[in-house]
Amino acid sequence: MPEQKRFLVTGRNGQLGHECGLIAPQGYDLVRVGREEMDLSDHAQIAKVIREVQPSFILHGAAWTAVDLAEEKEQEAFAINATAAEVMASCAAEIDARLAFVSTDYVFSGEGDAPWREDDPVAPLNAYGRSKLAGEQAVLGILGERGHVVRTSWVYGRRGNNFVRTMLRFMEQGRALKVVDDQLGSPTWAGGLAVALIALGLGENAPSILHYTDGGIISWCDFAQEIRACGIRNGLALEESSVNPCPSTEYPTPAARPSWSPMHFSSAWEGLGITQSTWQDALQLALPLLLRENDKVT
Ligand SMILES: NC(=O)c1ccc[n+]([C@@H]2O[C@H](COP(=O)([O-])OP(=O)(O)OC[C@H]3O[C@@H](n4cnc5c(N)ncnc54)[C@H](OP(=O)(O)O)[C@@H]3O)[C@@H](O)[C@H]2O)c1
Fold first, then answer.
1. E strands, 120-192, where?
2. Span 255-282, mean pLDDT?
3. Confidence (pLDDT) at 160
4. How confident is the model over 80-95, as a mean pLDDT?
5. Which candidate, 152, 123, 117, places its Cα nearest to that of 264?
6. Which of 39, 231, 234, 254 could form a disulfide with 71 if both were Cys (CB 3.0 to 4.6 A apart)?
7. How far apart are CA 202 and CA 297, in angstroms?
8. pTM for the complete prediction?
9. CA 219, 220, 226, 231: dihedral to nearest 10 degrees?
10. How many angstroms separate the alpha carbon of residue 62 from the centre of ligand 1?
């Protein structure tokens, strides 16, 4: 009988890592590690965990995700997003494991008019994007066809600081919100992304770079309006709140944000049994789960 596949997920307490732990493993064992077991700044610890767990597939979801802080701490962001990924890829190569590095639309310039394709030129517009791109290059350079880069955007899960939870919290307070309408992209439900990444681990012959988001191109303001409507449909008292469009210039941030984030949903997902949900369907599915998880959002 062939040996059962063993998957190692990093970033156990992050949005994606948490969702991975909620999928009942079928055809694989799952080991999730957080900062406690594997601190990415400790290279010896990365090697030790990988040698002990002996995974056939590593889903590397842990990352420095503080986009604005990365502007002043670029070296630290690189240490986690690039150097640690390089170490992990080398350890994966030693035991012949495959590795998926979860990356971002921020590797692109943020200026475009068609959804980014996997082989479009990269040109990150901030330090976080540069650090993730360096991680991508390290993983693919070391692992070749046993390495995968999965780029996603606008991720929200049951836990963590994300746009959906933040909006719901403000809306429950009855606030009149101003939300930018000149940054366009596609939201991604972390639960769906987790399923896709597990399918990538179970599948074979996947390409080096894949893009995964929910379907549709919207602004943050569109997203906020639908979050409010969906919250009301789910019984939340959000009627007093309102959502109004504003330009990005009203919310200057240390790190530049892309105006154009949409990515082409990779055709390879179909071969892995993964189809794309619309962002509305994904939100409709996710919101009750998110509310149940947190009992109350505030
Ligand atoms: N969120 C988005 O909108 C988005 C968009 C595009 C791509 N991505 C990528 O998708 C992946 C998953 O994102 P996410 O939203 O799940 O991120 P997240 O919720 O911020 O989780 C990141 C995880 O990384 C861990 N981590 C950070 N520094 C670490 C270190 N030095 N050692 C060990 N663990 C460390 C954190 O641990 P602690 O919990 O202990 O802090 C956290 O659990 C990341 O690779 C991210 O770059 C995210």
1. 147-152, 155-156, 176-180, 184-185, 188-189
2. 97
3. 87
4. 98
5. 117
6. 254
7. 34
8. 0.96
9. 170
10. 4
Q: Which among 155, 164, 223, 261 is the best mutation to test ligand 1's pocket, defined by most ligand atoms within 8 Å of the CB?
A: 155
Determine whether 128 is an active site residue: yes
Report all structural domains of the chain as residue ranges with CATH numbers, in order of start.
5-162+186-217+262-277 (3.40.50.720)
Band (pLDDT 50/70/90 cuts) for residue 2 is low
Residue pLDDT, tens place only, 278-297: 999 999 999 999 998 754 33
Residue 296 tokens read as 């109350």
Query: What is the average pLDDT across 126-138?
Result: 98
By most ligand atoms within 8 Å of CB, the mutation choice from 38, 45, 65 for ligand 1 is 65
Rounded Cα–Cα distance for residues 70 and 286 (Å): 29
What is the rounded radius of gyration, in angstroms, for the C-alpha atoms of the chain? Answer: 19
Answer whether 213's CB lies under 8 Å from 154's CB.
yes
